[in-house]
Amino acid sequence: MSATATTSRSVLRQAISGQRRQVTLASVLAACHQGGEALVPVIIGVVIDQAVAGRSVGTLVFWLAVLGVVFAALSYSYRFAARAAEGASLRAAHDIRLAISRRVLHPGGGAESGKLAGELVNIGTSDAQRVGVVNAALPFGIAALAGVLVSAVALLRISLPLGLLVLLGTPPLLYLAHLIGKPLERRSEAEQERSAHASGVATDLVSGLRVLKGIGAEPAAVARYRDTSQNSLRATLRAARAKAWHDGAVLALTGIFIAIVALVGGHLASSGSISVGELVAAVGLAQFLLTPFLIFAWVNGELAQGRASASRVADLLTTPTVVGAGDGELPSPAAGNVRFTDVSYGSLRGVDLEIPSGQLVGVVATDPAAATDLLDCLGRAGDPTGGKVHVDGVDLSTVDPERVREVVLVAAHDADLFEGTLAENVGTAPDEALAASAADEVAAALPDGTATAVTERGRSLSGGQRQRVALARALAADAPVLVVHDPTTAVDTVTEAKIATGLARLRQGRTTILVTTSPALLAVADRVVVLDGGRVTGEGGHADLARDRADYRAAVLS
């Protein structure tokens, strides 16, 4: 038994147990409904035998009143059972979405590995909903079983052979339905995977639409999505065919079973073993049995799809984190002394680097991958494979990543803005942070200033405006250690010089690491460190390095 299979069952159990009260209430009410439905043909049979055959008006009125009460109870129980089941379904799906969101946003990372953003959204929406529907299906499955049991008891009272036929015939029928549902489960999982991948590709293409148009790559993008969409369509059609085959096969089996019950009842009536009223009740019960068996087919299909989706949810929830929690403690308040000791990670090879508290240091990486790896180590997006990164003498790999990011803020080059106003994106940024990042000029140029609405990912702003707003957000956090990666690649030289001066002034006395090749930013740094071949190959002032090192000039001034 695989760990994934065990965990997928755990996901289903948690979805059910989390809404146990609602599921139980829905099951009881739905069982009352199905039980009452089964009693209707029995009561009609009694009416025929006692009232019609006996020509008793009083008896007829009495049983009609009983029938009216049963119908009223049926209406009430079904309405409230459906409400409780649907509520349990929606709440369970909501709980699963919260669990998925917590895992995706976990400081330890890892959930996004190998998955596009659209795939994660698909798991958090479609798969979560399918797992939640199990809570709506179970009560009606239990209710259908109750209907079958009431029918069997009624048939046993009418005729022992009829009752035994239903009681003994139902379990094999349910087992066959379960076997028939296996292909549907497999194809449903494949359908969800292809659909999630198609959603991920679509999201990826839409987010990069402006770039695609700029390089004239629309035909290649359309071709890529067409292939992905066709794969998704084929998987969906296979799943639809499996569901149609499943529903048709179950319907055929139940039809044959019900026909057998009706034939046996007719034979018993013709031989005089049961009365006319009992025959009517038996035929009515045989026809009624079609409803619980159809419910069984629906429930089996929903459970098959729910199991497939639960497996995908379980895979996401059990994805190991990239970094562990750790029990180390950084001092509070943190001074911000940073030290790399023989650090190897990705393209970094034995990096030794000391950044005293309060110093503004520029880092020039001749390989962009080395810059990214440096950021990962500082923000604990990954732990070094060799060596240590210390902040205030504490090994970062021993500290919870959430606490690390309270002390060390890494402002990535591609940081996104959120949908909302400019003010909501920068938070409680003081005027000094807005001025230092030149984001005050962005606000001044917008129709409603900081109250201007920003679209998803800040696409309503230019690239330079987005960079300045993102930098203002990072500066506003006032972290003890601020790591900024290429914050001015999309702004003009005049604005870049203003940002360099403002950033140095605002961060005075606070540790700041500028991973950049911008001459304007490097010029205001206390010192500049050169990373070449994944190693520290030199350090000094910007002017001195530009004069003495050809590799530095090539990286910064070319």
TrEMBL record:
For this UniProt record, give its keywords in alphabetical order, as a comma-separated list: ATP-binding, Membrane, Nucleotide-binding, Transmembrane, Transmembrane helix
Name the membrane topology term: Multi-pass membrane protein
Span of the secretion signal?
A: none
One of the record's GO cellular component terms: plasma membrane
Originating organism: Amycolatopsis umgeniensis
According to the entry, every stretch annotated as the ABC transmembrane type-1 domain falls at 25-305
Boundaries of each ABC transporter domain copy?
Answer: 333-558
Tell me the Gene3D superfamilies matching this sequence: ABC transporter type 1, transmembrane domain, P-loop containing nucleotide triphosphate hydrolases
An example Gene Ontology molecular-function term: ATP hydrolysis activity
* Name of the featured protein: Putative ABC transport system ATP-binding protein
Its organism's taxonomic lineage begins at: Bacteria, Bacillati, Actinomycetota, Actinomycetes, Pseudonocardiales
Its principal location?
A: membrane
